[in-house]
Amino acid sequence: MSQFDVTIIGSGPGGYVSAIRCAQLGFKTAIIEKYSTLGGTCLNVGCIPSKALLASSHYYEELQHFADHGIEVSGEVKVNLEKMIARKQAVVDQTSGGVKFLMDKNNITVFNGVGSFESATSVKVTKADGSSEIIESKNIIIATGSKPSNLPFIQLDKDRIITSTEALKLKEVPKHLVIIGGGVIGIELGQVYLRLGAQVSVVEFMDRIIPGMDASLSKELTKVLKKQGMKFYTSHKVQSVERAGDVVTVKAENAKGEIITLEGDYSLVSVGRRPYTDGLNAEKAGVKVTDRGQIEVNDHLQTSASNVYAIGDVVRGAMLAHKAEEEGVMVAEILAGQKPHIDYNLIPGVVYTWPEVAAVGKTEEQLKADGVAYKAGSFPFKALGRARAGGDTDGFVKILADAKTDEVLGVHMIGARCADLIAEAVTAMEFRASAEDISRMSHAHPTFAEAIKEAALAATDNRALHV
Ligand SMILES: Cc1cc2nc3c(=O)[nH]c(=O)nc-3n(C[C@H](O)[C@H](O)[C@H](O)COP(=O)(O)OP(=O)(O)OC[C@H]3O[C@@H](n4cnc5c(N)ncnc54)[C@H](O)[C@@H]3O)c2cc1C
Fold first, then answer.
1. What is its EC number (predicted)?
2. Which residue, of 216, 236, 382, 431, has the fewest CB within 10 Å?
């Protein structure tokens, strides 16, 4: 029987990063993964493949604007979807192979099979061939992640009524893709197929897309995507999704109680994700699962069994890869007797459309609801030399600062390269910077980052320089 200090169930960004940190701290570490490839949702059917397709489709779309730059492309430009999907898969395989390399390098033992608790200190691994073995471990970390959610009345056939997993490997560009749910995943994949030539309609229950983010970002993203041809049906409640042959019919009720009908050849159901604990037998370890299916944890990510911890999508909080990673590191360090800390308010959120959308801290809606007196400063990308030089002028940066102390409370941005620019805001907020602090820092010219300095100037004293 194998014995370990720490055993991690699930090899997503939470699990594998935690395993590396545990090994660095001197623990004899094992990781169990039910699939044959490591990396979890993020590497296999999430962050990485979606970004690969976003990159490929972005290149295709950019080609249409080459003429503006004086570049004439002769001959037909065509999409080869099969090749695009194969490239995506190659990126995924390489990245997953990289995780395997990191496991070996750190002397982490990898078990392939489904992990299920026998007790709080032993886990049975059932392999694909049906054989099993028992692992004994002083501590166990649950990192089993999440799966796509569905609405109870929708029959997913995974062929034409699909989830994000199937949308990452379609064999043809849909003629009309009807997306149910205007959250991050639906909008990102919608833009991929919009760029490749599909008609894309988004049906959203709330009154705006990306509803968790600052309303100004939803508004600007909607405007840009509408200009690109995406259609939106917000405040629409989906009633039914039916397939007949190659036609998928979606019926939804609008705010006036009228039923609209959309006919497409594919429907992507992207209504969120649910924590995944199937087959885990958490109860055998005395680990409590909430009504929402999440593993219940305290502030130290410890479950109701004191030597069992849980991290990532399977516990409360944002379902994001970098949140899972932070938690993985935190638990490893707690086990080593250290005192790590995560500020959940400073976990950034990003939408990898183009323009990119990124945010950290409080939204204006949250500050208003909390009764916090704040000031706001915005700066549009179109006023930046660098944005005009590159032809990427959509969007803005908005900084929200405390009305009295000037401390930055939230940063919201939409525009080129915002996924990377948000790191400056996270850094500033981690050090509890004021808007004036940011405005006094030198930002290289010409860069997109100058929009952050200008927004900080606008928030400090309404003294942006270039508007
Ligand atoms: C299309 C899409 C795009 C996304 N894009 C982004 C993005 O750009 N940025 C971002 O931050 N997040 C993104 N996400 C979310 C991100 O993928 C998740 O937040 C992240 O993967 C969560 O990590 P995790 O380690 O908690 O779980 P997961 O990555 O879900 O990994 C859990 C692993 O545990 C394994 N497992 C489960 N049960 C068992 C068991 N009993 N025994 C053994 N193994 C088991 C699973 O097979 C899986 O490999 C995206 C998600 C999707 C679907």
1. 1.8.1.4
2. 431
Domain end marker among 216, 236, 271? 271
Which residues does a 6 A CB cutoff place in the pocket of ligand 1?
A: 9-15, 32-35, 40-42, 45-47, 50, 114-115, 143-146, 164, 185, 276, 279-280, 312-313, 319-322, 324, 352
283 and 137 in a common domain: yes
pLDDT of residue 461: 82
- Does the reported pTM lie above 0.85? yes
CATH number of the structural domain spanning residue 230? 3.50.50.60
Cα of 11 vs centre of ligand 1, distance in Å, is 8
Q: What is the mean pLDDT of residues 383-410?
A: 97
Q: Is 313 annotated as a binding residue?
A: yes
Report the alpha-carbon distance of residue 399 to residue 413 in Å, rounded. Answer: 9
Same domain membership, residue 139 and residue 287: yes
Q: In this structure, are 19 and 144 located in the same domain?
A: yes
Q: Which residues are catalytically annotated?
A: 445
Task: Say how many Å lie between the CA of residue 146 and the centre of ligand 1.
Answer: 6
Q: How many domains does the chain have?
A: 3
- The residue segments making up the domain with residue 416 are 346-461
Over residues 401-431, the pLDDT tens digits come to 999 999 999 999 999 999 999 999 999 999 9
